[in-house]
Amino acid sequence: MDSFADRTKRRLRDELLDAAYDAIVAGGYDGLRMNDVARRTGVSRQTVYNEFGDKWGVLQAVVVRETERFLLDVNAALAEQSDPIDGLRVAVERALTLAGDNPLVKAALSQPGSDQASQLLTTRGQQVLEVSHQRLDAHVREHWPEIPPEDATSCVDVALRVVLSHIVTPGPPPAAVAAQLARVLTPFLSSYRRQV
Amino acid sequence: MDSFADRTKRRLRDELLDAAYDAIVAGGYDGLRMNDVARRTGVSRQTVYNEFGDKWGVLQAVVVRETERFLLDVNAALAEQSDPIDGLRVAVERALTLAGDNPLVKAALSQPGSDQASQLLTTRGQQVLEVSHQRLDAHVREHWPEIPPEDATSCVDVALRVVLSHIVTPGPPPAAVAAQLARVLTPFLSSYRRQV
DNA sequence: ATCATCTGTCCGGCCTCTTGACATTTGAGG
DNA sequence: CCTCAAATGTCAAGAGGCCGGACAGATGAT
């Protein structure tokens, strides 16, 4: 069920992703060399292809893992609030702040030779959206079961897309964006408020 | 040189030894089951045989690893003293104290069904002696180069055997044994003292 | 135009782990 | 004393994954 081989497999994947992450942060997507990833992990180049298919697969896997870690942090911020509106505001602010400091986001958006990488947040952003949506949705349903699933999903979707847009195209500071979004969505969520 | 496969191999060995260690501490040598070690590590029974040869090999490997860890601690105590006699006393006391608290030593000496295990400290103790001697000798030569190698070796050998004897057959408390040994060997080492 | 570098693919060989079977030993219980 | 169950130790066949080398194609620099 959880054999040594399974754990080894996961570890291999994880170490490969570590190496790839470092390479991308250092030199953007174009600076990512399959051979470097392999050598730095102490494995053959072929093994990297076996694991991820191609270079694009490596980038996707790095981004998915990073997204999941990112969401853990955002969900933790969500969990600290009992009122849904407060949660929304805090989570949005946290997400935007985190993104601004995230080395991988910086590399994807501002490194020369990362046009392809940035597409994972825009035209090819389904994966990031899906992973994020799934995690946020599950969390919201668990913490605010009184909100109808459909309403929760709608809110998550709206907020998520607005946040992603602000990551790709920064505007006002995080707190301002969070306040704005909270204000706009408050009427929609007013019946579920938990005033302290 | 340090491929992923190498690291995995070391990790496998280490996890097997962890499982074996726990089993021995819990149930003595007789309570050690090859099948349990394998299953607990998530590996087949055959793999355990491939790695250690037989059950006796497992025990030996566990003891060698534990000895090396033990010596790291003792050598750290040695390193804190500038005077060789002080080092001797402090190291002896530390070794006896550590041994008294060590779960594996307890299991080997007092668990029912560990007669064979206890032999690794007595009639079949060459391995433990050699490993310990090697580590201590190297450490002494590095820290007190002014002591002739032959004298250093002799002192290490005498002290080591006395300490091992006191572990197997406890007598006075650690501090008393340490003081006694230091007093006896002081004349032999007097010319190398570094009085503070 | 040429050369070097990188991606992506294929394949044969090798090594390790797995699986199942088997003989042998040992201890407990009828 | 005999039997059964459990554990050790050995063997061989099979599978899976990694390695190493080779190759074609694309790309960019000189």
From TrEMBL, chains A, B:
It comes from the Bacteria. It holds the Pfam family TetR_N. InterPro entries: AlkX_C, Homeodomain-like_sf, HTH-type_TetR-like_transc_reg, HTH_TetR. Residues 33-52 bind DNA. Gene3D superfamilies: Tetracycline Repressor, domain 2. Residues 10-70 form the HTH tetR-type domain. Keywords: DNA-binding. The keyword Transferase does not apply. One of its GO terms (molecular function) is transcription cis-regulatory region binding. This is TetR family transcriptional regulator. It comes from Kribbella antiqua.
